[in-house]
tryptophan--tRNA ligase
Amino acid sequence: KRRIVSGVQPTGSIHLGNYLGAIKNWISLQDTYDTLFFIVDLHAITLPYDTQQLHKATRDTAAIYLACGVDTSKASVFVQSHVRAHVELMWLLSSATPIGWLNRMIQFKEKSRKAGDENVGVALLTYPVLMASDILLYQSDYVPVGEDQKQHLELTRELAERVNYLYGGRKWKKLGGRGGVIFKVPEPLIPPAGARVMSLTDGLSKMSKSAPSDQSRINLLDPKDVIANKIKRCKTDSFPGLEFDNPERPECNNLLTIYQLVSGKGKEDVKQECENMNWGSFKILLTDALVDHLHPIQVRYNEIISDSAFLDEVLADGARKASSIADVTVNNLYQAMGFLRR
Ligand code: TYM
């Protein structure tokens, strides 16, 4: 079976962008692929964070995965920091990563510009190396993510190729290893719709956990009245009718796409249904579709989060399975890099 890995940071609350861009797409892949879904807690400390909240957010994120339909009889769900190989591989990969590659990362540039040099930890710069480790450890074939992770995936691919070139092949064999390719070179899986869900208050910036205003996003656990209020107040425009793909109407395209995805209808059907609608009627339709889609997820979330023994077991099981795969990869790399092994 080909393998798929992906993960979400346990920072802030999981929103519709995380769901439509990533988690929702994981579900349909579980039957065909060997899947591992992690909660990337080690990534969540790259910017100032609340130590009192991290463990709760980690559990919440795990519960949300399951509530959204991740099936633990098929997929492994685990916490990144429970599998030590992530950090171990990161150090080895760091030695093969040119600083220039990291300096070029858009997310690093944006986040560090906002925070200022004296406030930016080294981990914000080296973050993509940890992300590459998350993926390469498991010899993953595909990584289902939203569009904003594309550049990190490209770096992961380049790093895999570089390490294969530097340490793989016959060089590795001469050291007593099996020779050949150390890492599989993974490919991103970016969905045709939902890869970039935009803010409700500005159709030109992406929906994000860190945006100061909660009005800008729909959180997966938002109650019905909060969703209704956010949609009621969201930014629209004054063009007649509703349409997809008009660059002058980013909010309209975004809201129609959200409706398409949560209603499960095709784009063509939504286009016809909504082309002559006004914002007032569409907002009611969208609110109902959102509430109908999210309500069952919220019910399941509440069940799962209240059974902590079950959740602990799922995470322990997942970490065991993940470690057994990850350890092989790290040991191979140590050997290929010439380390004395015990
Ligand atoms: P994170 O936690 O920022 O986001 C989790 C997933 O949600 C997607 N996403 C979006 N998709 C569409 N529209 C949006 N507005 C939106 N916002 C976020 C992201 O693309 C992502 O798929 N570095 C990653 C986490 C990570 C990871 C990994 C992912 C760490 N290691 C290994 C895959 C494989 C991140 O910060 O995602």
Notes: Strands lie at 3-8, 34-39, 76-79, 142-144, 187-189. The radius of gyration is 21 Å.
